[in-house]
Amino acid sequence: MAGLKEVKGIGDKSLSLLKKLGIENEEDLVQYYPFRYNLIRVSDLDHLIDDKVIVDGVIESIPKVFYIHKNLNKLSFSLNTGTRILTITLFNRAYLKQSLKIGSKVTVFGKIDRNLRNIVASEVRFSPLLKETIEPVYHTTNGIAMTKLAQWIDEVLKTDFSVIDYIPKKYLEKYHLISKKESIFEIHHPTSEQQLKKALMRAKYEELFLFMMKMSELRENKMGKIGLERNVDFNDVEKVIETLPFTLTSDQRKSLEEIHADLTSPKRMNRLLQGDVGSGKTIVAILSMYMNYLSGYQSTLMAPTEILAIQHYENVNKILSPFGVRTVLLTGKLKTKDRREILEKIASKEVDLIIGTHALFTEDVIYNNLGLVITDEQHRFGVNQRGNLKNKGITPDVLYMSATPIPRTYALTLYGDMDISSIKASPSGRKEIITLLRKEEDLKEVLTMMFEQLKLHHQIYVIAPLIEESDKMDLENVEQLEQKMNRAFGKYYKVGVLHGKMKGIEKEEVMDAFQKGEIDILISTTVIEVGINVLNATMMVIFDSYRFGLSALHQLRGRVGRSELQSYCILISNYETERLNVLTKTTDGFKISEEDFRLRGSGDLFGIKQSGMHAFKLADVKDDFDILKHAKLDAEEYYMSDDFKENFILQELLKKSEDLD
Ligand code: ADP
Ligand code: MG
Predict the structure, then answer these.
(1) Is 571 a pocket residue for ligand 1 (Cβ < 6 Å)?
(2) Residue having the nearest C-alpha atom to atom 23 of ligand 1
(3) pTM check: above 0.70
(4) Which protein residue's CA is at the shortest distance from atom 10 of ligand 1?
(5) CA atoms within 13 A on the CB side of 477
(6) 204, 10, 395: which is closest to 21 by C-alpha?
């Protein structure tokens, strides 16, 4: 790879600036791609939309220069466009006089007057006249003008530069892709929209193919590792399933079988269990832990909040203790003495399942043959705690559970190194949640609807967006709502409050009371956003709902509609937003996430941006999803092929690129 110093015009100072742009050699430079293109069209003077014009023509007169005062000069000449003669004026461009010769063909950019006679020009170009030009626009850095950058790129393009084409021949042929060099020329100097598209598509494919190769490698590194081999008879699992008050859905069964296959294979499991809110992931996790238990290993189940951990703990105990499984709860709120006792039990393997919060992975927890680590409702980027795992040298299998439906596009990139099980259909017998949009002035109507539910002995969640920030004037805070609800229903029904500033124990007490039906209306902040499961709750009222993101609203709404009872979600908002309308139309989490994606763009969805995971140079996982899909399949195929074993250049590249995880 040739250095940059040989490139005409690049000095030491530019070198360090280019480095900032990630350009360290000629190969980088020619692959420094425009981030967008401008389409420059010569204006049709008979059909102008505004006064901005681009005209081609031949210079007809020697430019005249007037010095108006010290800092202002004016240059003008006449231009023959073939159909008209225009007077072109440029300010402070006297130095152009020499180059603007009679007979030269130029393109003029500027503003035209009403009579279509005079143009005040901002730019005059000597480039050949084209009716339509696609002009690249580059990101650059302070100290390097875009034109300079383009010039340097051109300098290299003129030479016999070399680039490595990483796309295996097989796929070049399969998709009739143009060569890398050709595409590079086209990307910097587009000849037509169609050709440019071909060039970009090739470059994107290469980028995504390499990314997917990297994913295959990560997958191999993680899952190719020798895992634990188990011998679990599925019939033993069936015995637990038989005791459940429901039959598993086919998606639940399928997920369970996939996990069973992973656990009994010698390879390490690294799996995401994806399923909409209420789809029934927990039971799959519980049965997975049971399989692990049958092989004599410990399991952990980590929940994001204390309340959820407790809920899981109770649930697990109910289902598995009859089968001899010993479960403990390990949270940060334990008293020192209790904690020590529990830690001893874990270390001496007197317990099989350990359920808790982040406390599961603090320094002092020493596991005894931990074979399975399950993380519930947690975004994968929050789970580095696993790094602290003290586990006597064995590598446990890993299962993530997520109810945050991720558009297929992101799932592929974000979880490209994992296997994915999906629970798509919710348990049958459930009725679609009825979602209504109401204004604050309709409160009376809302209260009436609430009363209908209360009369049926059903429970209600009321969601307030902020806590005790009464200075933020318009917001319904929890206390205000509490008063309001008590005024309306306090005489006959019990109103409870749950918010983030309460202590863990207080929260538990309230949740417990709600679970038992002792509280009829639970006013809460988004503390209850994830996981809580109270089947008798059939209505959710969300105040100031426009303040929430789509996904958050969807998660919240998922707290109701968890049984055969008809459930309702009432979104209160004085502003009608597109987001809120989406919710009234569908309860399908995947559709909602696609919508969210569309409304917000591929920007900061789920904080993915911060992770840098989607930082592609050219490709956009949403717009280029088709290419992505092909690249994924091809990369998976190629990774296993003999060709790859001999492709040292590509192997080298993959080794070099930083670890994405
Ligand atoms: P999530 O996927 O949101 O974690 P849960 O696992 O909490 O959902 O399940 C929601 C509710 O559905 C629970 O009450 C659970 O017992 C129940 N459930 C799970 N599977 C089924 C099923 N196959 N049929 C009926 N109810 C089910
Ligand atoms: Mg759950």
Answers:
(1) no
(2) 248
(3) no
(4) 278
(5) 10
(6) 10
